[in-house]
Amino acid sequence: MLQYSLRRILGMIPMLILISFVVFSLAKMMPGDPFGGEINPSNTDPKYIEEMRDKLGYNDPIYVQYWNWVKGVAQGDLGKSTTHKLPTLDIILERMPNTIFLALTSLLITYVFAFILGMYAGRKPYTLADNFIAGYNYFALAVPSFIAGIVGIYLFSFQLGWFPFSGSVEVGLKEGSWEFIQSRIHHVILPALILGLMSTAQYTQFLRNDIIENSRKDFVRTARAKGTKESKIYNVHILRNSMIPLITFLGFDLVTIISGSIITETIFTYPGIGKLFVDSVATRDYSVMMSLTMLFSILTLVGNLVADLLYGVADPRIRLD
């Protein structure tokens, strides 16, 4: 497994080089730049705009700009945000805790509901309850997350007043205090519920179908013939084999933990990595936009590797050489 991991990591290097070239090219092909008046109306002095473009190297040849950017990233220098006037790395690290908190909360909701609904539907297929769960799955898969977010804000924030509709914490609270922690939890519940419950559908459907398929296999018939309790058959034998398809999602969830939900964070104006990415695209903040895109790409590759390694952990019959 160690040799396999090393080969995969070495194989990521040319992939990352190609991704960096694509990310840089797409960013530079966007119309305008951070200093254009059409992006930032306060930048209307042509002399100032030209000075800033020269200072940041925007007038250099493309290959020179690309090399300077790659060299800086390799040295841990992600550049400076033209919008926030701060180092890009500091801005990302400042937003990351909010996104991790939102992602972990939504993942917990997703897995809890998926296992409950998937196990029940798999053990009692084609019943009224199974059809109801299937109807919910189809509904969750069909409804866009931004629609669910808007409806959730309207019902639970504006009409019922149960949850706040924006931000990550109430202004004026002392960081680390019990009131601060309560406010953080209160602010994250609604976006996490929207994100988690809408993601539950695909997990539930995969688990349900795999449980039904595995319940018809020979090892289950053998366990029943030996007098094994039905609960043990489902909770140990069948569940262990049915979890393997979900491991693929678990690997890609590594990306979700960092990137969060771009749409959900934007709708709830939740100050995380997702909203930061949308804002950087709108303001042509190249250093932030390219750094986040590279971060998402790296985590996607790492997520693939983690998913492959977890296959061997979940099922000893799978060997990675």
Automatic annotation (TrEMBL):
It is a multi-pass membrane protein. Keywords: Cell membrane, Membrane, Transmembrane, Transmembrane helix, Transport. The chain crosses the membrane at residues 9-27, 100-121, 133-156, 188-207, 246-268, 288-311. One of its GO terms (biological process) is transmembrane transport. The keyword Membrane applies. It is found in: Cell membrane. Its main location: membrane. One of its GO terms (cellular component) is plasma membrane. Residues 96-307 form the ABC transmembrane type-1 domain. It comes from the Bacteria. InterPro entries: BPD_transp_1_N (IPR045621), MetI-like (IPR000515), MetI-like_sf (IPR035906). Belongs to the binding-protein-dependent transport system permease family. This is ABC transporter permease. The lineage of its organism: Bacteria, Bacillati, Bacillota, Bacilli, Bacillales. The gene is opp4B.
